């Protein structure tokens, strides 16, 4: 079997990484007791890469994403976007949560245009782009619908359209389709790949699902139980564009097993 794993940090690419973490760490204080959520994470992610993070519950995946989003200050180390320290949220780094977070009293189009108000952009300059993105995520005929008239999967499409309208370079996705049924989730994943690969968007994707991580990614970062560290990185050498038929590829099964083994090793050591 080809060597697909590296221990420790995700190795540095030759060009400047779009996202980089150096010794990133986070301690919380819970009931007066310090808890180390994340410890010494090193990462270097290239533009256009699709990276998944898998690890046991509580290993700090969301914490890591929140720090990269500029939503949470780190305790030690540093995170960089295009070589500059990340100090606050930026329009270029979009964050997608597990639940859609839509305003019930606004239409799909108005929800998609809502961040314009926050960014101080004239909505009318974005309306055409918003409409074409809404079309691209398959909601062309629901532009004037309200969230309550949409299914969970459709609401997540609205969230995705809302992010894509502002042309982010990086998407941070924390189990974005975790609440959806398997069939819808698979369709959403394929659509996400199609859209982000075509636009060259870099994706950092948190999931609990090993085969989803392998199917989507260029690299799967496996984390140890808390305090979360990188226990290994699996390189996914399946050709792109990814297709459902690849789920039957023996190489796909092999890579799933490699990730599973790394996860198991993490458990053994703690
Ligand atoms: N705001 C917070 N205040 C205090 N502790 C926190 C906070 N956010 C996270 N933690 C703690 O940090 C650790 C990591 O949490 P985090 O949500 O990042 O893990 P996770 O890997 O995303 O978990 P899951 O897979 O269950 O979503 C946990 O022990 C959690 O209790």
UniProtKB/TrEMBL annotation:
Pfam families: ABC_tran (PF00005). Gene3D superfamilies: P-loop containing nucleotide triphosphate hydrolases. The keyword Transmembrane does not apply. The keyword Hydrolase does not apply. CDD domains: ABC_NrtD_SsuB_transporters (cd03293). Transmembrane segments: none annotated. GO terms for molecular function: ATP binding. PROSITE patterns: ABC_TRANSPORTER_1, ABC_TRANSPORTER_2. InterPro entries: AAA+_ATPase, ABC_transporter-like_ATP-bd, ABC_transporter-like_CS, ABC_transporter_ATP-bind, P-loop_NTPase. Residues 19-250 form the ABC transporter domain. This is ABC transporter ATP-binding protein. It comes from Terrihabitans rhizophilus.
